[in-house]
Please model this.
Amino acid sequence: MLQLAQRLVGENQNIKMKIENWETAGSLGPLYQELQQLGLETNIAELEAFGYTIVPPKKIGPEDYHLELREAMERVVRDRFRDLEVDLARWDNVNDNLRFLLWEDPVFEKMTYNPAGLGLAQYLLGTNCILSLVNGWVKGKGEARTGLHGDYLDPSPDAHPAINVNANVHYFLTDYNKADGAISFLPGSHRWMRQASPPESKYWADKAVAVDAPAGSAVVWGNHTWHGSYPRQTPGVRMALQCEYMRPRYQPQEPYRDTVTQEALDRNPVRFAGLMDVYGPFPFGKSDRNEDARTVEAPPGTGHGRGTIESYCSLFDMEPAAGRTSLRPNYDYMNHDGHMASDRHRKNYKKMKQAQEGKPA
Model:
C-alpha cells in the first residue's frame, strides 16, 4: 500500500489547480495567489481542518526579525513597570496584557501588515478586515494561566455566527512549549460554534494541545477555536505580540481610528489606513453616511469594499502611503445639512451607475 501511495503521489505531483482572478471569487483569487507565493497553503488547510495553524519564522520575516520586537516590548515593560532584569519577580504568577501597544514603537505598526499574518487573517475575515487590537503578552513563572475559551465573547448558546468575526495572530518573542507556559488549543473545536462553559473549560484545560514552536513563529486562529494556556514552570518570562483583526461592522477593542496620526498613515502603506478604518462609513449622523464619497473613492484596501478584485490591496505593497491616505474628518453628527445631503447622494448614485456601465466619472 505504501508503494502504491508513493507511486500515485509521484504521478500526480505536477497536477495543480491554477488559481486566477475569477470575478466570482472576488478578492480571494489574488489573495490566495499571494498566500501561495508565501508557501502558506498548508497553513490554510490547517485552519480549515483544526481551527489554528503555526507559521514558522522563515515565512514571517528575515532571520531573528523578532529580536527587534522583543527589544521594543522590553522597553514598554520598563516604561510601564520596571526593567525585567531589575524586577523579574514582579511577573511571578502573572499572565498580563500590555494594552494599546501600537503607538509605542513603529516596529509594532509594521507587524500589523506582515504579509503572512495579515494574509491568513484576511483569508478568515475578508480582505477588508480592520485592526481590533495590538497587545503584548508577558507571563512569568507560577500558576497563572489563561482559561480555555473562544474569542467570540458572548455566552449566549446560540450567539455565534457561522463565519469568523475576528482572528488572532500571535508572534512569539520567546520559545513556546508546555513547560514555558505556551498557548494551547482544542483542535477541531472551531466546528462546535459555541463558547466553552465553565465546566467544559475546566475539563479541557489540561487536555488541550500546547503549541511547541521557537521564537519568531506565529500562531493564527479564528474566534471559534477554543484555546487557553499552561502555567509557566521555567524561570524568566514568556512574551508575545498579539494582533487581532475583525470584520469592519463589529466593534474594535482599541480606538485606532481616533488615535492614528497623519504621520503614521504617511509612513505606512495604504493597507494600514484600512486597518485603522479611517475610510469606514459608520457611524451614521443626521445626514446619513457622512461624506459617503470618501469611502467610494478610497484607495484599494482602505475602504469597506465588497471583496472585489478591484478593491484588493497586495500583501507585498510596502510603499509608504506618503499623502495618499488621510485622517477621518471631524463629522458633525448632530445637524442635518439639508439639500447638501441630497446633492451628495445624487452625485454618489451617478458615480455608481457610471462605474457599473463602465463610463468615466
